[in-house]
Structures are given as structure tokens and as C-alpha cells.
Amino acid sequence: MRTTPAFTWGKRLTSCRERITNVVPLTSIKIVLVAWQIVTQFSSVLNVVYPGVYERFLSVLNVVNFNLGFILSVSCIVDSNFYGCRFFATICPLVVFGAQAVTYTVSKSRNRHSPAGMQAAKSKHLSITLFIMFVVYSSVPFNIFQTFVCERLDTGMDYLRADYSLTCYTGVHKAMMVYAGLMIFVYPVGIPAFYAWWLLFIRHYLVKVGAPNNFLERVPELDHLQPMRDLWAPYKPHRYYFEVVECGHRIALTGLAAFLLPNSAAQAAIEVVLAAIFVAVSDVLSPFVDPFDAWLYRIGGWITCFSMYLALVDVSDEDNQSQAVFAKVLIAAHAGMVAVIVVQAVL
Predict the structure, then answer these.
(1) What is the distance between the alpha carbons of residues 81 and 72, in angstroms, rounded to a whole number?
(2) DSSP label at residue 221
(3) Which residues share a beta bridge with 152?
(4) pLDDT tens per residue, range 293-340
(5) Residue 297 burial (CB < 10 Å; 0-12/13-18/19+)?
(6) Which of 14-18, 224-228, 286-290, 300-304 is the least confident region?
(7) How much of the chain is in helix, strand and coil states, percent to nearest 5?
(8) What is the rounded end-to-end Cα distance, in angstroms, of the chain?
(9) What Cα–Cα distance (Å) separates residue 175 from each residue in 91, 147, 237?
């Protein structure tokens, strides 16, 4: 039987993914990216003044938020305020998903006489969709929630805390709040709901068959689940749902933080407690198959706690030597996470 181009391309993608996975621990990279997203977004929520070196370090890490609206504005492609940037940030992923649907329909039509080609097209599109969902899940909901956060200044006027050039409760702001409310159901609610639906669909096989990393080999008729394996493969079979828990972790420490007693020490204190709770939940559930991933997740959790604690105690009034020590400890901890990935890859 002649191999279709789509099927050949699908096999190449699968082979490339396997080679990368054998060298680079992708789950570990995801854990580090999530920790960096939480830390950088939290500093924006509280408008924290960290020690200079650490502040510059976080500004470099901010690239992991993949904020397309901000990138378009800064690059002068568009000249926009908060509303424009947030519109681009929420619409662009939807445009990509729409393009995915179109290309999948075309691929499906071209390979209608080749089941293998259709499966390859489906696998490729699902893999890309899952990757996009992971990338935008922290940054886009964070931007959405900021639409609702206003601050009253000494003038008696309410301004949008994310952009003080915009006043709240005007016609435009109310329209943007309605839009943001709709986007909540698309991103903060919709993505984990999609994950939960997919995981519930295959939970019987995950729990019954056992080891998640090879159950597709033992149940060949479920090979169509391969593109979504990143949702469950890093976790033990009876913890197949942990990706949904992780979505709650990311939202609680980023987007929802904006609503917790803003501009107060209590806001940072609550976030420190929440970060510690999620570390404890991870230790109790012990979801990861790989011990390296478990340790890396724990390190990332405590780095998050420590960064939030610094926001609470406000070290900006300390002398330069104290600030340098704080900065070096935190940067060393971040570097430690990268070192764990390197060690894991070597071993």
C-alpha cells in the first residue's frame, strides 16, 4: 500500500518527538516553565519591588508567559492600550485553533481513503492544540482577570490597575468586562474542563491497565490517544487527574491573586499560604512517576513560596548587601531547577 504524504509527515513528527523525549525531559521543562510563569505573574499582580538583580532576572524570565498582545504592542506592530493588548492575547489562540480546524478538515478530506493518513493528521493537530493550551493557560487567564481589578485613587476616580490611563465602569470598560467574562468560560474554565473530559474518558484504561507510559502498547486499539499522552503519562495511573489539579494551582496563584485584598500585605500572605498548600497537596498525592519530576515540582513550589514571602516582608528597605544575598539565593534556586533537568537528561 502506498504511504500518503500526511502519513509520512506524521511518522516523522512522531519519530522526532521520541528522539527529543529520549534526550530532553519534557515534563521537567513544563514544571520549570509553570514555576517561572507563576513567579513573574505574581510580581505583576502585587507590583512588587524586588532586589535589583532579581528584578532584572524576572524580567528576562517573563518571556515564558508568551504574552502575544504585549509583544505586538511593544514591537510597534499595533499601538494599543490594555484593552487592545488583552483582546489580541485572547483572540490570537482562538484564531490558531480555528486555523487548526481548517487544516485538519483539509487533511481529513485528502486522506479520506487512508485510515492511517487520517490518524496521522488527527495526531498532529491534537498535539499542537495541546501544546498551545499549555502555553497560554497561565498568561491568558491572568490577562482576563486583570480586566475586573480597579483601584480608587486620591482623586476619587476608579482606574484599571493594569493601565492607569483607563477609568473603570465606563461604557467601554463594562463592555470589556462582558467580553472578559465570556473568555473566562473559554480559557480558565474551558481548558481544564477539556482536560477533565478527556481524562475521564480514558480513566478506566489508565487505572485498569496500570503503568501509564506503556498502556497504549498493551491496548493497541487505543493508539488514537497517543497525541494526548502528556496529560497523563507523567503521573501514576491512580493520579491521572493531576493535570486538572495543576490547572487550579496555576490559576489560584496568578489570575485569582488579583482579587485577594489587593494592595495589602494580606494579599501576599494569602498567596504564600496557598503556594505552601499546593506543595503539601503534591507531597500527599505523590502523583509523579519520575522521582526527578517530583523533586523538581517541590523545588519550584518552594521557590514560589520564597518569592512571595519576599514580597510580604518587603526587603526593598534593607541594605544593599542583604538585597544581594536575597537575590543570589533566589537566582541560585532557579538555576538549581535547570540543573535538575540537565542531570535528569544525562542520567
Answers:
(1) 11
(2) G
(3) 158
(4) 898 899 999 988 888 887 776 544 555 666 677 778 888 888 888 887
(5) buried
(6) 14-18
(7) 75, 5, 20
(8) 41
(9) 16, 10, 44
Helix (H, G, I), strand (E, B) or coil at 213: coil
Amino acid at 24: V
Secondary structure (3-state) at 120: helix
What is the Cβ-side half-sphere exposure of residue 218, based on CA atoms within 13 angstroms? 10
pLDDT at 208: 66
Residue 70 has which C-alpha cell?
A: 504585549
Full-model pTM: 0.80
Checking 207-216 for CB contacts under 8 A at 24+ apart, the result is 207/237, 207/238, 207/240, 209/237, 210/237, 211/237, 211/289, 212/236, 212/237, 212/240, 212/289, 213/289
Please tell me the predicted confidence (pLDDT) of residue 42.
80
Q: What amino acid is encoded at 328 in this protein?
A: K
CA 263 to chain centre: 25
Give the Cα separation of 220 and 217 in Å (integer). Answer: 6
DSSP 286: -
Q: Give the three cell numbers for residue 260.
A: 485577594
Mind giving me the DSSP string for 17-31? HHHHHHHS-HHHHHH
Find the length of the chain: 347
Cα gap 30→15, rounded to integer Å: 21
Residue recorded with cell 505573574:
41
DSSP string covering 35-104: HHHHHHHHHHHHT----HHHHHHHHHHGGGG--HHHHHHHTTSS---HHHHHHHHHHHHHHHHHHHHHHH
Concatenate the DSSP letters of all residues of 300-342 into one string.
Answer: HHHHHHHHHHHHHHTGGGS-HHHHHHHHHHHHHHHHHHHHHHH
Nearest of 84, 199, 89 to residue 144 by alpha carbon: 89
Q: How far apart are CA 295 and CA 88, in angstroms?
A: 37
